[in-house]
Amino acid sequence: MNIPKSIKIGGAVYTVEITDRLDLGKVNYSGEIDYVNLVIRVCPNAEGKMEVDLLHELLHGIADFMGYANHDEKRIDELAHALHMVITDNPELFAAKRETAGQEWVKEETGA
Ligand SMILES: [Zn+2]
Description:
The chain is of the alpha+beta class. The chain has one domain (6-100): Zincin-like (2-Layer Sandwich), CATH 3.30.2010. It is 41% helix and 17% strand. The longest helix has 19 residues, at 47-65. Bound molecules: zinc ion. Zinc ion binds at residues 56, 60, 73, 76.
């Protein structure tokens, strides 16, 4: 997976920064999301670790968008690891668009 320069969540465009400087402090955290300034910060680490950290903060952003004020850190982290597993195990899922089984089905339906 990729770590983009920005991520749009519910109409809000979060800037993604790779940085050691976290408002929360670096001792216990390797990423953070700032809902006010729309910034997701991920500490520079091994690629896979950074990807999971990004997904962790992304899930916080989605939960915030859905109106949840208190997030279960353990649950968010479990989901981040599970999501990372599925994304990396199924690279075709988010690859550039090309002909898929579904599109073939649409072709048959429309006769195109
Ligand atoms: Zn968290």
